[in-house]
Automatic annotation (TrEMBL):
<dbReference type="InterPro" id="IPR003661">
    <property type="entry name" value="HisK_dim/P_dom"/>
</dbReference>
<dbReference type="InterPro" id="IPR005467">
    <property type="entry name" value="His_kinase_dom"/>
</dbReference>
<feature type="domain" description="Response regulatory">
    <location>
        <begin position="399"/>
        <end position="517"/>
    </location>
</feature>
<dbReference type="GO" id="GO:0005886">
    <property type="term" value="C:plasma membrane"/>
</dbReference>
<feature type="modified residue" description="4-aspartylphosphate">
    <location>
        <position position="309"/>
    </location>
</feature>
<dbReference type="InterPro" id="IPR036890">
    <property type="entry name" value="HATPase_C_sf"/>
</dbReference>
<dbReference type="Pfam" id="PF02518">
    <property type="entry name" value="HATPase_c"/>
</dbReference>
<feature type="domain" description="HPt">
    <location>
        <begin position="553"/>
        <end position="649"/>
    </location>
</feature>
<dbReference type="InterPro" id="IPR036641">
    <property type="entry name" value="HPT_dom_sf"/>
</dbReference>
<dbReference type="Pfam" id="PF00072">
    <property type="entry name" value="Response_reg"/>
</dbReference>
<dbReference type="GO" id="GO:0005524">
    <property type="term" value="F:ATP binding"/>
</dbReference>
<protein>
    <recommendedName>
        <fullName>Sensory/regulatory protein RpfC</fullName>
        <ecNumber>2.7.13.3</ecNumber>
    </recommendedName>
</protein>
<feature type="domain" description="Response regulatory">
    <location>
        <begin position="257"/>
        <end position="377"/>
    </location>
</feature>
<dbReference type="GO" id="GO:0000155">
    <property type="term" value="F:phosphorelay sensor kinase activity"/>
</dbReference>
<keyword id="KW-0067">ATP-binding</keyword>
<keyword id="KW-0597">Phosphoprotein</keyword>
<keyword id="KW-0418">Kinase</keyword>
Length: 730
């Protein structure tokens, strides 16, 4: 009886939290949505500042709501950890952005270590990993008045085993520290270092509890070392499976020569590590005078990039840049990046700021450094043929039906989607929406559907839509304040295609709309068949322009597509045959080869699905059937489009197949011969050597080497040849 009552009480509490979360999120959607729209209006600086503060306060309130909800989920064992492919740099860059905005005007150095080598592309839960790091860095900044906050990442004992990597994450500060007696309870719910009525620091006291639980769910243990008055370090270790990156670094961005100046020893060391992790060649100095001395000694032409801290004793960053331009006015200066911890407005107010190309806010990450330089080189014309897609009016041409019983929510959604170029119609419940749809079944590209509505709710409306032959292919996106997994599952069971929580993030909303409409377009022949001569080709299964971003040589690319058809057309049937015999290892091997070929040819949907299936087969999971069907459909569409492309392309007869080369002693000798010549850094010599041995080499390899020679990127060519040898010998 007592157990039954406890279960009922716990269920009642969970339902209460879910309901109260829904009730709070609905007005929060209006607050955040309307302030987002207000910030896009012409406002005076004073009014804009007030609107920004309202928006920021709303985000803080949402963070508190999420903390309470996460804590409730963890208690009820309803929080799931995902395992998806992600780039660690994306997570760290997001943490760095939040740190840079949180530090304010405090005299604090915020420092981010480089991504450990070999740990760039992982599988895991990037959202929860980021949540833990954001919480820990937020606490560190809150309790530190001056000094430094350092986020560290290192491989544990250089651990890489069975395509897995173990990483130690740490957040260290020079703040107030935690008394010994408090350290025993610091991870308890609602526990705070300063719990007095006159306390300086706010918060719910749930952040560390949630972080501890999340790290535990991800397979680690959040630990603490702290000394009162000296500072604290929170640290944990996690093991991640490695994932294959979908794209490689642009050749134009490799081997940049960079001079880094920072008077803070730790920051300087970690920024040097970050530059090295990008494959760049760094030199460093601790002062503005050091910059001038090195440039005078080595020459301006030595460096592609100057990365200079603004606030340094003696000659600061801006003074150093001014001297550079005064002493060498006729020289085409390298890219100049200014590093700044705070006071960005004061920096821009200085007339000398016009001499710099961009400002990077601390902490410097590999992503922020790489993207800043890429943008500047593109602006200067240093990178040609780069496709630049405007982010404005991203859903132009789409007609969207928004269904919500809340008038403010409808208005917010309409204004945001309209500002992005969409045509928007509104309905206040499911019944009205269904009536609008049946009158114009071909009109709408996607439906945003609230769940809880009077007359007819979102679930019932979606079921009606999916049972209607004319409407069933229109994607339906659940737009709801209910955020438990059970709510998401209910939406999927009703036939909804995706899920966006309220209050919605604009980028997430637009991304989900684009993703769903892309899927829909791929199923319609008229929308999917796009001219292969069109450089804006965007077929989701196959894209020549996307493929040629990786393959500079068009003939080699076409030739390898023909090889793909020859070798992989029957892969799905082979996998099916092996799985019927429960031969998971052989099926996984076939899937792995398919994944590798799809990735090399930039067949991204095929690569993504085969990657997911390979994970299931590795675990010998029996839940592979639906994914295998989806992969088979993707394979059919991809093969059909490749055949159509090859048959319409005069540069290659589709009956001509690329040369298939077995890896023999002669092949290995040919590779070593090419490697030896590449060390000369002489393109003519390499081409001559390659022409003598190319009959022993795969056309794909020859094409890749030639692409590197066109860019004079000899080191990249060496890496490609070595990777090929290693792959054949393994």
């Amino acid at each position: 009886m007592a157990r039954q009552k406890a279960v009922e009480a716990n269920e009642a509490k969970s339902n209460f939290v879910a309901n109260i979360s829904h009730e709070i999120r609905t007005p929060m959607n209006a607050i955040l949505g309307l302030t987002y729209l207000l910030q896009k209006q012409p406002l005076s600086p004073t009014v804009l500042n007030m609107v920004q503060k309202i928006h920021h306060s709303g985000e803080n309130l949402l963070g508190i709501i999420n903390d309470i909800l996460d804590f409730s989920k963890i208690e009820a064992h309803r929080l799931d950890i995902e395992c998806v492919a992600f780039q660690l740099a994306d997570v760290i860059d997001n943490v760095a952005n939040i740190m840079s905005s949180s530090v304010g005007n405090k005299p604090i150095e915020v420092i981010m270590s480089a991504i450990p080598q070999g740990a760039e592309s992982l599988k895991g839960d990037p959202l929860r990993l980021g949540q833990v790091l954001i919480n820990l860095t937020g606490n560190a900044l809150k309790f530190t008045k001056r000094g430094e906050v350092v986020v560290g990442m290192t491989r544990v004992n250089d651990y890489i085993h069975n395509e897995k990597v173990r990483i130690r994450f740490s957040v260290r500060d020079t703040g107030i520290g935690i008394p010994q007696e408090k350290q025993k309870t610091i991870f308890n719910a609602f526990s705070q270092v300063d719990a007095s009525t006159t306390r300086t620091f706010g918060g719910t006291g749930l952040g560390l509890t949630i972080s501890k639980q999340l790290v535990g769910l991800m397979g680690g243990d959040l630990q603490l070392f702290s000394e009162e008055g000296v500072g604290s370090e929170f640290y944990f270790e996690l093991t991640f499976p490695l994932s294959d990156p979908a794209t490689n670094s642009m050749p134009h961005m490799l081997h940049q020569r960079i001079l880094i100046a920072d008077d803070h020893d730790v920051a300087l060391s970690l920024i040097v590590d970050t530059a090295m992790s990008l494959g760049w060649r760094p030199e460093s100095t601790s002062s503005g005078q050091g910059v001038l001395d090195k440039l005078e000694k080595l020459g301006m032409s030595t460096f592609d990039v100057l990365l200079i801290d603004w606030r340094m004793p003696g000659i600061d960053g801006l003074s150093a840049v001014t001297s550079i331009h005064e002493q060498m006015p006729d020289f085409d200066t390298p890219v100049i990046l200014m590093v700044n911890a705070a006071d960005r407005d004061k920096l821009y107010d200085n007339p000398a700021s016009k001499l710099i190309d961009a400002v990077i806010t601390k902490p410097v990450t590999s992503s922020s450094l790489y993207n800043s330089l890429l943008e500047i080189k593109n602006r200067r014309g240093g990178i040609k043929n780069k496709i630049v897609r405007s982010q404005a009016r991203r859903v132009e041409g789409l007609t969207i039906l928004v269904v919500d019983d809340n008038e403010i929510n409808r208005m917010v959604a309409e204004n945001i989607l309209s500002s992005e170029g969409a045509q928007v119609e509104l309905a206040e419940n499911g019944s009205i929406a269904f009536s609008i749809l049946t009158k114009s079944p071909q009109k709408f590209d996607v439906i945003l559907m609230d769940v809880q509505m009077p007359v007819m709710d979102g679930y019932a409306a979606t079921r009606e839509i999916k049972q209607n032959g004319e409407l069933r292919n229109i994607p339906v996106i659940a737009l709801t304040a209910a955020v438990f997994k059970a709510d998401r599952d209910a939406a999927i069971r009703a036939g909804m295609d995706d899920f966006v929580p309220k209050p919605f993030d604009v980028e997430e909303l637009i991304g989900t709309v684009l993703r769903c409409t892309k899927k829909q377009n791929s199923s319609g022949v008229s929308k999917a068949r796009i001219s292969y001569r069109d450089e804006t080709l965007n077929d989701p299964y196959f894209s020549e322009s996307l493929g040629l971003e990786k393959w500079s040589d068009k003939k080699s690319y076409q030739s390898q597509l023909a090889v793909f058809l020859e070798h992989h057309e029957n892969d799905i049937q082979r996998m099916t045959d092996e799985l019927e015999k429960a031969h998971y290892v052989e099926a996984q091997r076939l899937c792995h080869k398919l994944r590798g070929s799809a990735g090399a040819l930039q067949l991204k949907p095929l690569w993504e699905l085969s990657t997911q299936l390979e994970v299931l087969l590795e675990e010998e999971s029996e839940d592979y059937l639906e994914l295998l069907k989806e992969l088979a459909q993707c394979m059919r569409e991809t093969i059909e489009l490749i055949r159509e492309y090859l048959s319409n392309n005069r540069e290659l007869d589709p009956t001509i197949k690329a040369r298939v080369v077995e890896f023999t002693h002669q092949t290995e000798h040919a590779c070593k011969s090419v490697l030896k010549t590449l060390s000369s850094n002489d393109a003519d010599k390499v081409e001559k050597a390659l022409s003598k041995v190319d009959k022993w080499l795969p056309e794909e390899l020859v094409g890749n080497i030639n692409s590197c020679l066109n860019e004079h990127d000899f080191r990249r060519a060496e890496s490609i040849v070595k990777e090929y040898i290693d792959s054949q010998n393994s």
